[in-house]
Write a structure and sequence with these properties.
Strand content of chain B: under 5%
Shape of chain B: globular
Low-confidence stretches of chain B: none
Distance between the termini of chain A: 38 Å
Strand content of chain A: 25-35%
Number of strands of chain A: 8
Structural class of chain B: mainly alpha
Largest sheet of chain B: none
Structural class of chain A: alpha+beta
Number of helices of chain B: 6
CATH superfamily of the largest domain in chain A: N-utilization substance G protein NusG, insert domain
Helix content of chain B: over 70%
CATH topology of chain B: Arp2/3 complex 21 kDa subunit ARPC3
Low-confidence stretches of chain A: 139-147
Number of helices of chain A: 3
CATH architecture of the largest domain in chain A: Sandwich
Order of helices and strands of chain A: HHEEEEEEHEE
Number of domains of chain B: 1
Radius of gyration of chain B: 17 Å
CATH topology of the largest domain in chain A: mini-chromosome maintenance (MCM) complex, domain 2
Shape of chain A: elongated
Strand order of the largest sheet of chain A: 2-1-8-7
Radius of gyration of chain A: 21 Å
Oligomer: heterodimer
Order of helices and strands of chain B: HHHHHH
Largest interface: A-B, 33 and 33 residues
Number of domains of chain A: 2
């Protein structure tokens, strides 16, 4: 092949190769499975960890409401539904996983994400600065992520 | 009078760039009406990048940056909030920056590659912004999805602006 034997003259060839490489590594990251046992649900708002709840087969179904920080108060979490505040996310935790059931955010993407039960993808609500992530009890293979 | 002609040309350029900024804003508004493509926040077609790339190729770097800035500021005033402005600014200028570099490296050829790099860096810029605003590393789990989506949508917008550049816009006398 002329590309391999001679000098690579076209910058477009190199840049295509770079793009393909990045795309393939992204696909590998997406389809890589992580083991899940002894999971915990971390609920944080604006970077403050509000609650950590164990998630296993004996988890009872519970509903929480997260109120993001405003000028007047810090972010807080309450059990039950509280939609009287200006901004809110209602979260339901059950043995199947965790999901956002109600939110005041404009596009409702956090609700559309449905129930999550694996550490692969957290639920994020950007307007309300909410992150719900699942942490597996075992140590996550750190060689896969470079923070 | 050369000064007069200079001023005429300058006015004409201002008006043309203004029109392109309005066009970009229109496309952005249309895009924001579309339902979300995917459950992950930030994945969208990025159609207004077509205009940014077009301005970069047709008018130059400074002009493209100007059109982008005007589009971002007005769209934030019309549909957004200060936080969405921050996301738009980091994403938009990360994309434009890499597009300038990529276009120079490719010597103006293969615009779809420039678009793909732009799309990728747009999403990476926004992710970096989310990292600071949400102060949580867990958003990094979105990175592969966002980068992949950026490459795909960027290829499309790059191709679209390539075909747009082929169209001769008639000069008004």
């Amino acid at each position: 092949m002329s590309v391999l034997s001679g000098k690579i003259k076209k910058p477009s060839t190199i840049m295509t190769a770079v793009l393909v490489l990045i795309a393939v590594s992204c696909l590998v990251c997406i389809f890589r499975k992580q083991n899940d046992s002894g999971k915990r649900v971390n609920i944080s708002s604006s970077g403050t960890l509000l609650a950590t709840i164990n998630l296993n087969s004996s988890t009872e179904e519970r509903v929480y409401t997260v109120i993001p920080a405003t000028a007047d108060h810090e972010a807080y979490i309450v059990e039950g539904v509280l939609t009287t505040e200006e901004h809110y996310n209602v979260i339901r935790i059950s043995r199947e996983g965790v999901c956002v059931t109600d939110s005041d955010c404009p596009n409702g993407l956090c609700i559309h994400q449905g129930i999550i039960s694996s550490p692969d993808i957290p639920i994020a609500c950007l307007p309300n600065r909410l992150i719900i992530s699942i942490e597996s009890g075992e140590e996550i293979n750190t060689d896969a992520w470079t923070y | 009078m050369p000064g007069h002609i200079d001023r005429m040309a300058k006015t004409k350029k201002t008006v043309t760039l203004g029109l392109f900024a309005a066009l970009s804003l229109g496309i952005y508004a249309f895009e924001s009406l579309l339902p979300p493509l995917f459950v992950i926040p930030g994945i969208k077609p990025g159609l207004s990048n077509i205009i940014t790339l077009y301005c970069l190729k047709r008018f130059g770097k400074k002009e493209a940056a100007l059109v982008l800035l005007v589009r971002i500021l007005i769209s934030a005033m019309l549909f957004g909030n200060p936080i969405s402005l921050l996301y738009s600014l980091t994403g938009g200028f990360a994309a434009l920056g890499i597009e300038m570099i990529s276009d120079a490296l490719l010597k103006g050829k293969a615009l779809h590659l420039t678009g793909a790099f732009g799309g990728m860096f747009h999403n990476m810029g926004q992710l970096l912004c989310a990292l600071f605003i949400l102060a949580s590393v867990s958003v990094l789990a979105y990175a592969p999805y966002l980068i992949l989506a950026g490459i795909i949508t960027g290829l499309f917008t790059g191709l679209a602006s390539f075909f747009l550049l082929k169209i001769k816009i008639p000069e008004q006398p």
